[in-house]
């Protein structure tokens, strides 16, 4: 799976980003900038950057983290070297949209198997360990700096496309990592009509429910709270049904990224 993920990443770089000279952060982004200016291959520059980052990891991070990023750091440059760099899509915006989606799929597969392609993911780990800066903030800052270099190298349009790519990649990764089959979790409390709401849900709908025994924070009295998991398409209908029975019922709706087992129809 890691080899598949790395090849997917290599395809996104060599067939979508690099041919259009757009560097959307990371070690591969640095490599694209170097290729644009000095005509050095993306694979070679990525290998150099990853080697430097591995050195920092060995020096400043623990052995387990270094082991986790070692294989990906060395293999990604190989995949970049053997994957042909060709322009599949001539339209620059379309190329970055497709490239972002492909790149997000590759990185997400790596995340799901707890692997990494190394590179500029190392500095955020170091910042977290020594300065207690959140990795997401550190990675965003580094990617933004790389993106800014698009302006002198490839122009303002490349910079805008690079920033757009980072945002799109983040959205796609979120869905790939947690799945597309998302559900809504509805929590319901009512001081007067909870048994009626419960009976209505069980009798008039196909939704199952769970009853939680809770304690009122203000009153200190024991209460019941219903939890219902529904498909997105049934969410509004159920909330309206609850409010028809009790217009002032407390209803809390959250997103469930993954649901396994049980009857949620």
UniProtKB/TrEMBL annotation:
Would the keyword Hydrolase be found if you checked this record's keyword annotation? no
Superkingdom, natural source? Bacteria
Q: Which InterPro entries match?
A: DUF2179 (IPR019264), N-reg_PII/ATP_PRibTrfase_C (IPR015867), UPF0750_membrane (IPR051461), YitT (IPR003740)
- Coiled-coil ranges from the UniProt annotation: none
Q: Keywords in UniProt for this one?
A: Cell membrane, Membrane, Transmembrane, Transmembrane helix
According to the entry, every stretch annotated as the DUF2179 domain falls at 207-261
Bilayer topology: Multi-pass membrane protein
The record's Gene3D superfamilies line, in alphabetical order, gives: 3.30.70.120
Q: Where in the cell is it found?
A: Cell membrane
- The name this protein carries in UniProt is Integral membrane protein
Mind giving the lineage of the organism this protein is from? Answer: Bacteria, Bacillati, Bacillota, Bacilli, Lactobacillales
């Amino acid at each position: 799976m890691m080899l598949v993920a790395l090849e997917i990443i290599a395809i996104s770089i060599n067939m979508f980003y690099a041919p259009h000279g757009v560097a959307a952060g990371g070690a591969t982004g640095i490599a694209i900038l170097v290729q644009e200016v000095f005509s050095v291959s993306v694979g070679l520059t990525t290998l150099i950057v990853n080697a430097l980052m591995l050195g920092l990891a060995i020096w400043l991070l623990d052995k387990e983290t270094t082991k986790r990023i070692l294989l990906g750091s060395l293999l990604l440059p190989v995949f970049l070297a053997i994957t042909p760099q060709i322009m599949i899509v001539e339209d620059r915006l379309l190329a970055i949209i497709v490239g972002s989606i492909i790149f997000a799929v590759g990185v997400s597969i790596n995340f799901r198997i707890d692997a990494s392609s190394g590179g500029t993911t190392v500095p955020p780990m170091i910042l977290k360990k020594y300065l207690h800066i959140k990795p997401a903030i550190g990675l965003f800052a580094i990617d933004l700096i790389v993106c800014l270099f698009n302006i002198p190298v490839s122009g303002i349009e490349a910079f805008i496309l690079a920033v757009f790519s980072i945002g799109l990649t983040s959205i796609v990764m979120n869905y790939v990592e947690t799945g597309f089959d998302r559900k809504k979790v509805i929590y319901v409390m009512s001081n007067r009509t909870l048994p009626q709401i419960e009976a209505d849900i069980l009798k008039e709908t196909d939704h199952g429910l769970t009853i939680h025994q809770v304690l009122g924070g203000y009153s200190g009295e024991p209460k019941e709270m219903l939890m219902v998991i529904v498909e997105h398409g049934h969410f509004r209908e159920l909330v309206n049904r609850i409010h028809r029975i009790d217009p002032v019922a407390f209803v809390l709706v959250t997103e469930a990224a993954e649901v396994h087992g049980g009857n949620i129809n």
